[in-house]
Amino acid sequence: MDTTTTPDPQRAPQSPPPPRGGPVRAGDRIFRALSSASGLILLLIMAAIAVFLTYRASIALSDNSVSFLTAFEWNPQGDPPAFGIGVLAFGTLVSSVIAMVIAVPIAVGIALFISHYAPRRLANPLAYLIDLLAAVPSIIYGLWGALVLVPYLDGLSRWLDQFLGWTVIFDMTNPGSPARSILTVGVLLAIMILPIVTNVTREVFLQAPKAIEEAALALGATRWEVIRMSVLPFGRSGVISASMLGLGRALGETMAVATVLSPGFLFSWHLLDPGSGTFAQNIAAKFNEANEFGRDALIASGLVLFVITLLVNGAARYVIGRRKEYSGANA
Fold first, then answer.
1. For residues 92 and 204, what is the distance between their CA atoms, to the nearest angstrom?
2. Which candidate, 99, 308, 301, places its Cα nearest to that of 185?
3. pLDDT in tens, 282-331
4. Which of 104-108, 109-113, 315-319 has the lowest mean pLDDT?
5. Could you report the per-residue pLDDT of 161-185, keeping only the tens digit for each?
6. 66: exposed, middle or buried (Cβ count in 10 Å: 0-12, 13-18, 19+)
């Protein structure tokens, strides 16, 4: 029995697929060149800022008589000059942590409500309102905090001192002072970063696979079970990156903190007392009255804040890039 097969005359031989893409049009080349030039200019600007800050900071650090990273005093006009960022780093870190602890859970709850609970006729205006809050200038938040938030938090501070004063954190050593403390700054920063964290988190939750959600609902899962098993695991990286973007703004906020805080440049664990300042607030408060060397010292502290902000935003970008759904790598 002959088992040889004869070629099918009706099946034409397959030709190789045409090459992807055709000749590049002039408009595409121009757009690509402009995009590349814009990215290069941005890198050059960032490099120029880093070089300027490093040069001016080296002038001040060469004459500093104490450890710049660990000293708790700021007296660049002294003889010899003595200035350090220990207190500023503490105040910046504590206020940012307070802001993150308050803002992130609320932002995740709002994002889940808009994306999975609220009816569409309510979700769209609410999302638009949050977008508007993200565009409010920081000085407006600062004025609102000084005129409205501080008087209201004064009663809360006294309540915390009365019932939780046995702790070191909520012990108010000067009950007569207004609530211009690190705790107030943390609450204000939480309100400021809440729209940013909410917007990014909402967009991530909206990208959760609808097929998985519908399958879970078809199997009898409740809406919260669907969110807990599919939406939250899918959006974990997005929530982390959104939180770190909010942290970047909290670290570098200037005018709102300067309007609310009454710093004493003291290292203190008492969150209800005027004490530690922040990097940005210290620069804004002392730049005009400082001499040339004092400004170099402030620029040195700004260099530290610049590096911290770059690290935070770089870490957020790394977290986003790990997920193809957010980075566009699967496009």
1. 28
2. 99
3. 888 888 888 888 899 999 999 998 998 888 888 777 776 766 544 444 43
4. 315-319
5. 778 778 778 777 766 566 778 888 8
6. middle
The tokens of 253 are what? 């906020």
Are the C-beta atoms of residues 172 and 181 closer than 8 Å to each other?
Answer: no
One-character DSSP codes across 125-159: HHHHHHHHHHTS-HHHHHHHIIIIIHHHHHHHHHH
Q: In whole angstroms, how far apart are CA 215 and each of 137, 195, 220, 223?
A: 44, 32, 9, 12
Which amino acid does the sequence have at 276? S
Kind and range of the H or E element at 165? none
Residue 164: CB atoms within 10 Å: 12
Cα–Cα distances (Å) from 76 to 71, 89, 104, in that order, read 12, 17, 38
In angstroms, the Cα distances linking 45 to 48, 49, 260, 311, 315 are 5, 6, 32, 17, 21
78 close to 291: Cβ distance less than 8 angstroms: no
Name the residue type at position 79. D
pLDDT at 299: 92
pLDDT value, residue 178: 63
N-terminal to C-terminal alpha carbon distance within the chain? 53
Q: Output the six-digit token pair for 248.
A: 């970047």
Residues 6+ apart with CB under 8 A from 299: 53, 56, 57, 60
Whole-number Cα distances in Å, 286 to 76, 109, 298 = 11, 39, 8
Listed by start position, the domains of the chain span: 53-327
Largest separation between any pair of C-alpha atoms in the chain: 108
Structure tokens at 234: 């899918």
CATH class of the domain comprising 53-327: mainly alpha
